[in-house]
Amino acid sequence: METIVNEFIQALLSLDRLAAKRILENTVKTVAPMKFVEEVVAVALERIGAGWQDGTIALSQVYMAGRICENLVDEVLPPGDPDRKDQPKMAICVLSDHHKLGKIIVYSVLRAGGFDLSDYGVMEVDDLFQRIQKEKIEILLISVLMLPSALKIKLLKEKLTASGLDIKLIVGGAPFRFDDRLWKAVGADAMCKTASEVLSVIKTIMGDNI
Ligand code: B12
Predict the structure, then answer these.
(1) Where are the beta strands (DSSP E) in the chain?
(2) Residue 84: what pLDDT?
(3) Counting beta carbons within 10 angstroms of the beta carbon of residue 84, is it exposed (0 to 12), middle (13 to 18) or buried (19 or more)?
(4) CA 205, 126, 177: angle at the middle one, nearest 5?
(5) In this structure, are residues 121 and 91 in contact, taking their beta carbons and an 8 Å threshold?
(6) Using one digit for the tens of pLDDT, what is the confidence trace for 108-157?
(7) Which residue lies with its CA nearest to atom 72 of ligand 1?
(8) Are 12 and 48 in contact (CB under 8 A)?
(9) How far is CA 176 from the centre of its chain?
(10) Which residues contact ligand 1 via a Cβ below 6 A?
(11) Which of 154, 142, 136 is closest to 106 using CA atoms?
(12) Which residues contact 173 (CB under 8 A, 6 or more apart)?
């Protein structure tokens, strides 16, 4: 896998979408698409991000690498399972942040796992609070990649508590991977380090109600 990650990084840094796509197509002949996404795409982007931090990679390369991966991931992840399960009302969003890839992956994992959910895109706290109330959402999944965005979840939780609403919050993204205690501090009910954990976390949260 290490060789594939390195080749994939080279393709992304050269902005060679076709080469990146070729690596993906060759690998998913023998490896599950989700494994490719988590063990190649996510790892490659993380290393590219580290390169940006230490000044060896330009932000434009980080941006283009993110965009190329967004498109490729959209193509490779499985479509929704037509046999939808009886389930709580769910929605997913990115809060106050423009890192969308994690959300796209989690959305796709849930749909492939038989769940139907609304994709709210990028939201701010006030609009999000109004919308989940109006649409009677029971489980809200929030993706954030920046610490200030993660801290805004606390504001949302305070609004929910003040209104007596028990909407379960499942969170994920870089700030929570960097700090194991952050999800509890912002008032979330659960956190996932990877998208593939989300199905079992939802089942645990809902207990016998699913
Ligand atoms: C690619 C990238 C970008 C791209 C985004 C392109 C896009 N369309 O998404 C671009 C170039 C636009 C960008 C911009 C910026 N970025 Co940026 N970016 C990254 C980078 C390198 C990778 C992110 C990524 O896509 N990873 C791959 C995906 C698949 O991983 P993921 O999102 O973590 O998701 C996985 C899990 O976390 C989980 N998950 C995620 N969300 C959820 C939600 C739920 C409910 C569940 C269950 C699971 C789950 O499932 C996913 C799959 O397993 C990260 C570095 C990093 N370590 O994350 C920095 C990073 C997130 N960026 C950062 C910063 C600072 C910025 C900028 C402010 C830079 C600038 N000065 O302009 C801007 C801000 C943009 C904005 N307003 O949102 C910082 C944030 C630091 C912080 N502590 O706040 C990071 C951490 C880099 C760093 N180490 O400094 N960025």
Answers:
(1) 90-95, 118-123, 139-143, 168-172, 190-192
(2) 56
(3) exposed
(4) 45
(5) no
(6) 778 867 788 999 999 999 999 999 999 999 999 999 999 999 999 999 99
(7) 59
(8) yes
(9) 12
(10) 38, 42, 45-46, 48-49, 53, 59, 62-63, 66-67, 70, 97-103, 105-106, 141-143, 145-147, 170-175, 177, 192, 194-195, 198
(11) 142
(12) 97, 99, 102, 143, 144, 145, 150
Give φ, ψ of 123 to 5 degrees: -130, 160
Candidate from 99, 144, 169 with most ligand 1 atoms within 8 A of CB, to mutate: 99
Residues 176, 183: contact at Cβ < 8 Å?
Answer: yes
Please give the angle made by the CA atoms of 124, 128 and 132, to the nearest 5 degrees: 170
Mean pLDDT, the chain, rounded, equals 89
Residue nearest to atom 38 of ligand 1 (CA): 194
pLDDT attached to residue 208: 54
Backbone conformation region of residue 191, classed left if phi is above 0, alpha if psi is from -120 to 50, else beta? beta
Residue 191 pairs with which residues in a beta bridge? Answer: 171
Q: What angle do CA 87, 88, 92 make, to 5 degrees?
A: 110
How does DSSP classify residue 40?
I
- State which amino acid sits at residue 99: H
- Choose the residue to mutate in 145, 152, 170 for probing ligand 1, maximizing ligand atoms within 8 Å of C-beta: 145
Tokens 């499985």 correspond to what residue?
78
Contact 175, 147 (CB under 8 A): yes
Q: What is the pLDDT of residues 34-45, one digit of tens each?
A: 888 888 988 898
